[in-house]
């Protein structure tokens, strides 16, 4: 279904299925690669200039699977892609389906009344005025098997609050103000990863290091971040909540205790900062290996509580677990290493997008990037798992992570997931070799996903699985960055 605002279309938006290299599907150079809005879920979005419409600008096999959306370009509106997460069928309840249908009825009818005349209590004043709707709907594609999506144009002031208004398993992604040029991962960067993939072998020292990640330390860290231990006072780590600032300062202190140099990097008014920490290389090099998680959280609609034990406290404590071993072992790296805890992920990857853009503007030499998001839920009756992205990311990096898992965490069953997308996307779009690690080789199954019950002390929350995946991250980091230990260091 296509909705066009009143007036003459001044732009044509082109929505196509994801492909790893966009340059391979265009037949007229520049029509797609010079007019790229980004990839969201399993779809890439472009602005199509009139001149391209006069040619056959894409391969004919794609014609039946694309959407062309007439759009009246309005500098006072922000385009936002809405994406339903890939969720297990067990999470698709009648209540959830009613949420989705009601949300899109509300958007499509008038922008300020929910279907059937029901008002979204406490939020209708944020979305529009009686004179002009604050939200315009341009595309909605509701899929019974999951993967539904929508494209809306909203007043910029409403963008940060959109996340709180979506159905529970949906996330917003903010499109750039203007289309940009598509930046592929350069061939030399891919060849570097391929070389690692071909040459990596079991290393007993690496094995000793990764097995030093402490389960009890991770338990203490996650209980502090969620507020379960009663010490932190944190109720919510939502990017706008005071608890996220408390968490940011605490994370900075913990990472600095391990020898890192850290900075709280602000990126947008009202949002908690990114926590960026660096271990400088022991040799003269610009190469950098970056691993990350996001420490902001999201709770149930209408609830003040957002503990984020799994999403993404699990990825955050994995970083801390690695940092603690770096400190205990006194190891040094031959490449620069960054451990970064992002904020603003739940509102549309704001923190990582700002950081990745900064890195690209500096022409930073990031050779490898791995994001950890949701590592902790272990579905009943299933083996511990590691999921790698089916869509966005660099396949060679995913293959490298898979090989590391087979060597250093063979207890994990490795596969691919359509769950998408986390902060690695921000780096992939800037041309950096990147991937994500996730808790399941399949869709999201955690019943506390985007829920105020996302605590660590609950059925299915598996710290051992988090530790196993953290071992994979750490092993990849050690092999990719290179390292040295003091001569007298005893790891046993």
Q: Concise description?
A:
By secondary structure, the protein is an alpha+beta fold. It is built from twelve helices and 18 strands.
Architecture overview:
It is a single chain. The protein has helices at residues 50-53, 94-109, 124-127, 187-199, 204-210, 215-226, 242-257, 313-329, 350-361, 395-408, 424-428, 463-481, and strands spanning 11-17, 36-40, 43-47, 67-71, 78-84, 135-141, 149-154, 170-174, 261-265, 274-279, 288-294, 332-333, 336-342, 366-372, 385-389, 413-417, 434-437, 483-484. It has 492 residues and is α+β, with helices and mostly antiparallel strands. The strands form five sheets. A six-stranded mixed sheet has the order 9-10-13-11-14-17, with helices on both faces. It has a four-stranded antiparallel sheet with strand order 2-3-1-4, with no helix packed on it.
């Amino acid at each position: 279904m296509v909705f066009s605002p009143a007036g003459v279309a001044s732009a044509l938006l082109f929505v196509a299925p994801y492909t790893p290299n966009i340059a391979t599907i265009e037949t007229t150079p520049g029509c797609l690669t010079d007019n790229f809005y980004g990839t969201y879920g399993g779809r890439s979005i472009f602005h199509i200039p009139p001149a391209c419409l006069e040619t056959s600008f894409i391969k004919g096999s794609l014609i039946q699977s694309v959407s062309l959306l007439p759009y009246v370009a309005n500098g006072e509106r922000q385009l936002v892609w809405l994406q339903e997460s890939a969720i297990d069928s067990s999470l698709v309840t009648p209540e959830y389906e009613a949420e989705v249908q009601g949300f899109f009825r509300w958007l499509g009818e008038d922008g300020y009344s929910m279907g059937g005349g029901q008002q979204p209590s406490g939020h209708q004043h944020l979305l529009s005025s009686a004179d002009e709707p604050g939200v315009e709907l341009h595309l909605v594609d509701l899929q019974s098997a999951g993967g539904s999506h929508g494209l809306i144009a909203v007043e910029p002031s409403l963008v940060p609050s959109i996340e709180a208004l979506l159905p529970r398993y949906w996330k917003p992604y903010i499109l750039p103000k203007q289309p940009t040029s598509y930046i592929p991962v350069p061939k030399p960067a891919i060849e570097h990863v391929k070389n690692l993939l071909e040459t990596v072998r079991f290393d007993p020292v690496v094995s000793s290091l990764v097995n030093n990640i402490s389960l009890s330390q991770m338990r203490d860290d996650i209980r502090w971040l969620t507020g379960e231990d009663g010490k932190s006072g944190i109720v919510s780590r939502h990017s706008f909540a005071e608890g996220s600032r408390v968490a940011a300062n605490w994370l900075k202190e913990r990472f600095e205790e391990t020898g890192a140099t850290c900075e709280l990097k602000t990126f947008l008014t009202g949002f908690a900062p990114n926590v960026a920490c660096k271990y400088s290389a022991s040799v003269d090099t610009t190469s950098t290996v970056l691993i990350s998680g996001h420490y902001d959280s999201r709770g149930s609609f209408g609830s003040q509580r957002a503990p984020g034990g799994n999403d993404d406290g699990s990825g955050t404590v994995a970083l801390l677990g690695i940092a603690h071993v770096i400190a205990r072992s006194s190891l040094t790296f031959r490449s620069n290493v960054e451990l970064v805890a992002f904020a603003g992920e739940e509102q549309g990857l704001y923190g990582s997008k700002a950081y990745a853009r900064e890195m690209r503007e500096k022409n930073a030499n990031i050779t490898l990037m791995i994001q950890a998001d949701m590592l902790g839920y272990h579905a009943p009756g299933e083996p511990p798992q590691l999921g790698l992205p089916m869509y966005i990311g660099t396949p060679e990096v995913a293959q490298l992570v898979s090989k590391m898992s087979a060597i250093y965490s063979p207890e994990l069953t490795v596969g691919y997931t359509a769950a998408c997308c986390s902060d690695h996307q921000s780096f992939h779009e800037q041309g950096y070799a990147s991937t994500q690690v996730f808790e399941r080789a399949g869709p999201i199954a955690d019943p506390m996903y985007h829920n105020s019950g996302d605590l660590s002390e609950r059925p299915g929350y598996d710290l051992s699985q988090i530790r196993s995946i953290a071992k994979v991250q750490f092993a990849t980091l050690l092999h990719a960055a290179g390292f040295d230990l003091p001569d007298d260091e005893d790891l046993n």
